[in-house]
Structure formats: structure tokens, C-alpha cells
From TrEMBL:
It is a multi-pass membrane protein. One of its GO terms (cellular component) is cell outer membrane. It comes from Flagellimonas meridianipacifica. SUPFAM superfamilies: Porins. Transmembrane segments: none annotated. Belongs to the TonB-dependent receptor family. This is TonB-dependent receptor-like protein. It comes from the Bacteria. Residues 1-23 form the signal peptide. The lineage of its organism: Bacteria, Pseudomonadati, Bacteroidota, Flavobacteriia, Flavobacteriales. InterPro entries: MG2, Plug_dom, Plug_dom_sf, TonB-dep_rcpt-like.
Length: 843
């Protein structure tokens, strides 16, 4: 039997390869189709993000532990495009309450959120997206619901409402919204075809509706029942000269709905999904109408079928394809005319349940004090050891947080939901326990859906490359250099970047032909002070070469794309598209809301009028300086413009004018010391240096331009104690004109040429990436008691190679629980998603 199946499959492959080689050269139209599918995979490669949270239900005061996987949207292997993605949490009323920008240098990136103790109970939504994902014609960012609160009743009710309709409620016929879709896109007179029927109530929930297809003589052609999921499929053969309707019945009421337009001539595409195999039928009522047509099948852009019709097929052909060799997920079939025009399409969900990769779990109790070790073994479909990246959480079996834990799994998200779009009904169908009913119901849902990842009409005519959004690899500093007298004049210049901090970094380069520059990408988590300095390539003097302006490109905050739904017309947006307002139009906080990050309540006040005494210029400057310094007052402060500039060449020369500061040594090897500091042969005697509040080495001070300094503070003794042991020898704090943002008019300096004393130099603070907390795995024995509702163990970075991985040990002896859930999610090296829950018994 195995040899027979293998022979059949090899024959099919040979047949497909033959048609591929001949069809590619048949005509320019099909050549464009072939080219466009390749461009989708090579240039516009889709990207997917999946976020594994340690659980789905949280209580106030807990931490949300999560890991985000960024994957290739075609192969589901570790993605190579974006290293940056954006993460946010929406509150129960839809407002954005927390945003993060995260960098990943591994297959996944760790995320954590502290939940305040006074958080409002309700259903929250987490979303994740990269800028590269904005290349999609429709938003396909990750989205998942979590419940936060002391009671899970609301969350359970939401799950039940999403899973099945309220069968006890009476739905009025006038509240039913019925949509009808022809399989493949068209109904043709004289050809047996199928339609999919979707029935929803006014809230969008599926409803059970009985109905019939009738003609204009009130003759019943066939009947249907949409059942619990509000979906049904009908097959019938339209006869020329008849007009057809759908008639629904609800108690004593009747309703009529028209069918999609029936064409006099055209093409149909019908697919019967039998699980292990699919039967594909292409038909037309035109003589020799299938000659030269091409049937293309692909899964997520990876082509597996290219079948060309010939004269022997006349007006109908049938193809039988085994499902086992195909990748799991949505298979997209499209029938093209000989000129390369798409005329029919159909989606089918492929789910090979026969022999998936296997993750085996064993555990061992190491000691009586409660320490437990976990061991995993990973093998592929053939039983051979393989590798993968995973994240693992351990939860008490008795807690409420473990119920409905895999409401959304990585496998379901990657293989179906991430390609189908935001389809709430798909969640309910995926939870269907009966496999045959699940497959047939999903088939009807996909019959009523179109492929939203791209439109053939858009791709065949080549998508303009200028709309391409490049993947982000890290933090990039870019901008342009222009003339100080003419902002439109391009100035060839040398520009340098200094990164001030404990690890000083400096680099420089020439601007390009358009006067632009780019530094990076960089990866850091703390906010870092940076300095850009530019000078012309030519000029009679140093001051002449500095007559340039640096304009820094500043990206606005990332906004998640707007949701839309597309019509059955390939790539054409429906007039009644269901749109969700972008984050920019939503209120930041609602009255009585709270700040999710700080946990502080927010109260909106009535408008009031505040009056104050007008300050003098000196008082304004002193007040602004007080806001930007950490200490109360320095030992002494010197403004740079109060010093005579005779003999001052650099900032170290300014230091020589400061009382109590000694600068010794030859040029290039200077040392600085504050008198009355520590005198020791063994201990360091050098003070710490700060530029605009950021600690830097002396080398960074030496290269600064003295004209950019606004004032210098010297701190010693008790004044320097704010810096702890680092300030034992005192501190010298340098404040630049651009870094402070101050001017002598008592106002704030603007970014740009306006109020910048040195427009050829720009000092700014660059925010870094958000970092996650480290899960504290308590050793055994411990006196600290773990909350009965908290996550017992969380490990986001587990690399399993066969039976080898780092040892996972955790302490289970701090609670009375004897049974635990071990939740494992991740991706194998060949792109197979794994979502498993193991039970750990310690009796």
C-alpha cells in the first residue's frame, strides 16, 4: 500500500514539474503571475509575530511574562528581517495604556509588564507588530486577549459568547445579517456550483438559521441549516431562465435574500476537502474554455501546484491532490485564463494530523525540599531528533488561571488566524472538539473568505518598489546637512557621531550626494546622550567650515495599522469595510482611568486659572537650571561666557579656570583632580565627569568644543554624595547649550537652527529599547511563599536539540499544590509550531 501511494505521489510530482516547465514559457501573462509570486517570497516576504504569555488570566499585582517570536511568514522559521517590533496593551475600553519598543537578538524577545494592584478588572488586548509588517496590503499584526482582575466570570462569559451563540435567546428575523458567497467567486448557468451562507445577529455573533433556495416559481431547490456556527454550504445547478432566492424561516416569519449574480458564461472552481486528500474541479460552459488556463496553488506564498489546461480537458478537469506533502495552513488556489487574468479562487485549510513533530516531557523530583527538574525530548515526523526554540511556564493545576490556557495557540495563530485576518468566528471553530465537524465548518468559512495577504491583480502589474518599508535592524541616527544661509542647498560635509557614556564611542563619515548621513544600527536599552558635529569639506577657516546646519530625522510614535475587510473582488476594498479607529484618534485616558505603568489613578480636573508673579531673567534661568540638575546646589558654578576666552582652546582649558580644579600633564595626557578630594597612592583620585547629566570618560571631554559649553558645575564633599561612591573624588558636570535646551531669553531652545548657538553641532538624548525583567526562580529551600495564583516558573529561552537542553529546575515546595501545568510553546527548526500542556504530579 505504501509503495502504491509513493508511486502515485512521484507520478503526480513528475506531472506537476512537466506543467511548470511548459507553462512558464506559454505566454507573458502567466510569466507575470510566476514572477509576482516569486517577488512576494523574495522581496515582500511576509513576517509574522506570535506572543506566548505565561498564562491568559492574571490578578492585580502580578507580572505578565511573555516571549515574542518573529518568524518568516512563508516558512515559519526564525525570521531574518526585523530585529525591532512594537508591543502595546489596550484597556477594556480600547484605549492604549502601555507601549513598548523591543529589540530581539535571538529567535525571540522577552517582554514583561507589571500589573498595578488597583487595576480595573476586564478583558485587555495585547498587540505586536513590526514596521516591516506594514508592507502587507491588510494589517496582520498579532492580537490576543487577556483577562486581568480578581474575578474570571466576565472572561468566561466572553469565551462562551465567542465560542457559540446563545441558543436560548430568540433572534428576530429582522436582526439577522445574512451573507452569501459563491464558491470560487461565481455561479454559472448550466454548471453545478456551491454557495456558502453566513448568518450573524446584530452583534456579529453566529446564529442558527434554517432556509431554502427557491426559484421565482417558489419551487424549493435545496435547503440548509447554518447550525451553531452560523455557516452552511448548498450545492445546486442554476437553470437558464430562472431567478433564485434564499428564503429563511424563523418561527412564523419569512425573509428573502437574493443570490449572487449568476453569469451566462464563465468559470467555476470547486474543491472538496476530504482531509487526507483534496479533489479540485475546474469547469466552464465555453467550448475548449479550459485550454491554456493555469491552476496555481500555494501555501503562504510557497507554490506546490501549477497545472495547465490543454485541449483534451475541453470544458472540465478534475485533480486529486494528497494533503500530506503540503505544509499545514491555508492553501490558496487560483484559476487563471490563458492571458494571466485571475477568474476564480478558493481557500482550503490543510491540517496534517497524521505524524506531527513530537515533544516528550519527563520530570524528576530532586529532593524532599521541593526542587524539580524538567527534561524534554524533541523529534520530527520521522522520529529523528531535531531542534527548536521554546518558552515554558509552570502553573499550579488548581488555579483558575490554567483554564482555557490555550485559547489561542501558536499553531492555530501561525497556520490559520495570521493568514485569514481578524476573523472572530475562526476562534470558535478551532475549539470544536469533533475533528470532522471542525474540518467541514472551517471549509465553509474559507469558502466565504478571500486571500487577503495579497491581490493577484496588484501583484501581476508589479507593486511599486518605492512603497517598500525596509525592516528595522536597530536604532538608526540619520538626517541631512544643509547650508546655514540656504536650507535647500546641499553641503558636502564630514559628520561625526559621539556617544557619551561609560563606554565612549566615536565615528565619522562623509555625507552622500544628497547631503544625508546615517549611523547605526545600534542596540542599547538605556537612554544615551549623543553628539553630532558637522563641517564643510572645504573652507578658508574653521569658522567658515562650520557654517552648516544639522537636521535630524525624527520618527513619530509607531501606530498600529487600521483593520479593514476586503470584498470578494480580488484586492478591492469593500465599501462597508469594518474599520477600527487608529490609536491616534483614541483618547489617551478616560475619566477615572489609571496609568498602567505606574499604577496611579488619574483624575480629570475642572478648568482653573492660575496666576503667578513674573520672574526676572536671572530667576527664569535659575529655575530652568534647577529642573535639569539632580543636586540642590553645586560647590560652585561657572558660566562659560563669563570667562575671558584668551588662551582657551578646549574644555580642559575651561577646567583650568575653575577654582579648586587642577589640570596637569602634557597635551593629550592630561589628568584632572579636585582639591580636597581623596589622597591615595592605591585608590583612584580622579573625579567623575558628566555631560548633560550623563557620565562620560575624560576622553569625551577632551574632544568637546568649548564654544558649545553653557556652564560647568563643580561638586565636592557632601554635594557630590548624590553620586555615591563614584563621587568620592568629586564631580565635574558640563552642560551644553543644546543639551540643556536653555537660552538667555529665559525660554526653551528649539530644535533646528533657530536658537542653537552652534547649528553645526547637535546634542540629543536617544531613547533605548524597553527591556524585560528577569524571572526570579527561587532556590529550595526558601522562606518566601509563592502566591497561589502566580506563575511558579517561567523560562523564555529554551533551546532543545533532541534530548539536550539546559537543565530546567524550579522550586515547587513553597505551596501546597501537588499538580502543575507545564505550558510549552515554540517553533522547530523546520518551522513547525508546537503548543503543549503537560501535567506534572508531585504526589
Amino acid at each position: 500500500m505504501l509503495e502504491k501511494n509513493t508511486s502515485f505521489f512521484l507520478s503526480l510530482l513528475c506531472l506537476l514539474m512537466f506543467f511548470i516547465s511548459t507553462a512558464q514559457e506559454s505566454n507573458q501573462g502567466m510569466a507575470n503571475v510566476y514572477k509576482s509570486l516569486g517577488a512576494y517570497g523574495r522581496i515582500w516576504t511576509p513576517e509574522k509575530i506570535y506572543v506566548h504569555t505565561d498564562k491568559k488570566i492574571y490578578r492585580p499585582g502580578e507580572t505578565i511574562w511573555a516571549k515574542a517570536y518573529i518568524l518568516d511568514g512563508i516558512t515559519h522559521k526564525n525570521g531574518t528581517n526585523s530585529n525591532i517590533f512594537y508591543f502595546e496593551i489596550l484597556g477594556p475600553n480600547g484605549n492604549t495604556i502601555s507601549k513598548k519598543r523591543v529589540f530581539r537578538d535571538k529567535p525571540g524577545a522577552e517582554i514583561s509588564f507589571e500589573i498595578p494592584n488597583n487595576v480595573a478588572s476586564g478583558t485587555y488586548t495585547i498587540r505586536a507588530c513590526s514596521k516591516f509588517m506594514l508592507n502587507d496590503l491588510e494589517p496582520f499584526y498579532f492580537e490576543q486577549e487577556l483577562f486581568i482582575g480578581n474575578s474570571r466570570v466576565g472572561y468566561v462569559e466572553k469565551l462562551e459568547n465567542r465560542t457559540s451563540p446563545d441558543t436560548d435567546a430568540k433572534t428576530q428575523l429582522s436582526d439577522i445579517q445574512l451573507s452569501v458567497h459563491a464558491e470560487g467567486g461565481h455561479l454559472i448557468y448550466g454548471i453545478k456550483g456551491a454557495i456558502g451562507v453566513k448568518a450573524n445577529d446584530s452583534f456579529g455573533r453566529p446564529v442558527s438559521v434554517r432556509g431554502e433556495i427557491i426559484n421565482d416559481y417558489n419551487e424549493v431547490i435545496t435547503s440548509f441549516d447554518t447550525g451553531d456556527y452560523g455557516l452552511a454550504k448548498c450545492v445546486f445547478k442554476p437553470i437558464k431562465g430562472n431567478i433564485y432566492f434564499i428564503r429563511t424561516t424563523s418561527d412564523s416569519e419569512d425573509g428573502k435574500y437574493p443570490l449572487p449574480t449568476i453569469l451566462d458564461s464563465g468559470y467555476t472552481l470547486q474543491i472538496e476537502n476530504l482531509g487526507p486528500q483534496m479533489i479540485i474541479s475546474a469547469k466552464t460552459n465555453q467550448p475548449n474554455g479550459l485550454k491554456g488556463t493555469v491552476l496555481v496553488g500555494h501555501t503562504r506564498g510557497e507554490r506546490f501546484l501549477w497545472f495547465q489546461g490543454t485541449q483534451i480537458h475541453n470544458s472540465e478537469y478534475n485533480i486529486r491532490i494528497p494533503s500530506d506533502p503540503l505544509n499545514d495552513g491555508i492553501a490558496h488556489f487560483t484559476l487563471f485564463t490563458e492571458k494571466g487574468e485571475p477568474v476564480c479562487e478558493r481557500l482550503v485549510y490543510v491540517e496534517n494530523t497524521g505524524n506531527p513533530p513530537k515533544l516528550k516531557f519527563t520530570n524528576q523530583k530532586l529532593s524532599e525540599n521541593g526542587e524539580v527538574s524538567l527534561q524534554f525530548t524533541l523529534s520530527d515526523s520521522d522520529g529523528a531528533y531535531t531542534s527548536g526554540d521554546f518558552s515554558i511556564s509552570v502553573l499550579e493545576n488548581q488555579t483558575e488561571s490554567n483554564k482555557n490556557d490555550l485559547d489561542l495557540s501558536m499553531k492555530d495563530w501561525l497556520n490559520l488566524l495570521s493568514d485569514l485576518g481578524h476573523e472572530p468566528l475562526a476562534f470558535a471553530i478551532l475549539a470544536e472538539p469533533h475533528p470532522i465537524k471542525r474540518r467541514k465548518t472551517l471549509d465553509v468559512l474559507l469558502l466565504c473568505s478571500s486571500w487577503k495577504r495579497f491581490s493577484w491583480k496588484n501583484w501581476v502589474h508589479e507593486r511599486p518598489i518605492d512603497t517598500y518599508i525596509a525592516p528595522e535592524k536597530g536604532i538608526v541616527i540619520n538626517g541631512k546637512v544643509t547650508s546655514i544661509s540656504n536650507p535647500l542647498q546641499i553641503v558636502p560635509a564630514i559628520i561625526s557621531l559621539d556617544i557619551l557614556g561609560a563606554d565612549f564611542y566615536q565615528t565619522q563619515k562623509r555625507t552622500d550626494s544628497e547631503g544625508r548621513f546615517k549611523f547605526g544600527p545600534f542596540d542599547f536599552t538605556d537612554s544615551i546622550t549623543m553628539v553630532l558635529k558637522a563641517s564643510k569639506l572645504s573652507g578658508r577657516s574653521k569658522s567658515e567650515r562650520r557654517k552648516v546646519v544639522i537636521d535630524l530625522d525624527e520618527d513619530g510614535p509607531f501606530e498600529f495599522p487600521v483593520k479593514v475587510t476586503k470584498s470578494r473582488d480580488f484586492g478591492k476594498q469593500s465599501e462597508s469595510a469594518d474599520k477600527v479607529a487608529p490609536a491616534t484618534t483614541q483618547k489617551r485616558y478616560a475619566p477615572g482611568d489609571y496609568d498602567f505603568e505606574t499604577g496611579k489613578d488619574i483624575t480629570k480636573l475642572e478648568e482653573v486659572v492660575v496666576t503667578e508673579k513674573k520672574l526676572t531673567k536671572k530667576e527664569l534661568i535659575a529655575e530652568q537650571i534647577k529642573k535639569i540638575t539632580l543636586y540642590n546646589r553645586p560647590s560652585f558654578r561657572v558660566f562659560a561666557d563669563s570667562l575671558p576666552y584668551t588662551g582657551i582652546r578646549n574644555v580642559l582649558d575651561l577646567f583650568r579656570t575653575l577654582p579648586g580644579v587642577q589640570v596637569k600633564g602634557p597635551i593629550g595626557g592630561e589628568t584632572v583632580r579636585i582639591r580636597y578630594g581623596v589622597n591615595s597612592i592605591l585608590l583612584p583620585t580622579e573625579p567623575i565627569y558628566l555631560v548633560d547629566g550623563v557620565q562620560v570618560p575624560l576622553d569625551a571631554i577632551k574632544i568637546m568644543n568649548s564654544l558649545d559649553v553653557m556652564f560647568i558645575d563643580v561638586l565636592k564633599g557632601a554635594e557630590a554624595s548624590i553620586y555615591g561612591i563614584r563621587g568620592a573624588n568629586g564631580a565635574i558636570a558640563v552642560y551644553t547649550r543644546r543639551g540643556t535646551g536653555l537660552d538667555y531669553a529665559g525660554g526653551q531652545g528649539d530644535i533646528g537652527n533657530g536658537n542653537r548657538a552652534s547649528p553645526h553641532m547637535l546634542t540629543f538624548t536617544q531613547p533605548g529599547f524597553d527591556s524585560a525583567k528577569v524571572f526570579l526562580n527561587l532556590p529550595c529551600p526558601t522562606s518566601q511563599t509563592i502566591s497561589t495564583h502566580s506563575t511558579v516558573f517561567w523560562e523564555p529561552n529554551v533551546r532543545i536539540i533532541g534530548a539536550k537542553h539546559k537543565t530546567l529546575r524550579f522550586c515547587a515546595g513553597t505551596s501546597d499544590a501537588k499538580s502543575y501545568h507545564v505550558r510549552v510553546e515554540g517553533i522547530t527548526e523546520d518551522g513547525k509550531a508546537i503548543s503543549e500542556i503537560f501535567t506534572l504530579n508531585l504526589d
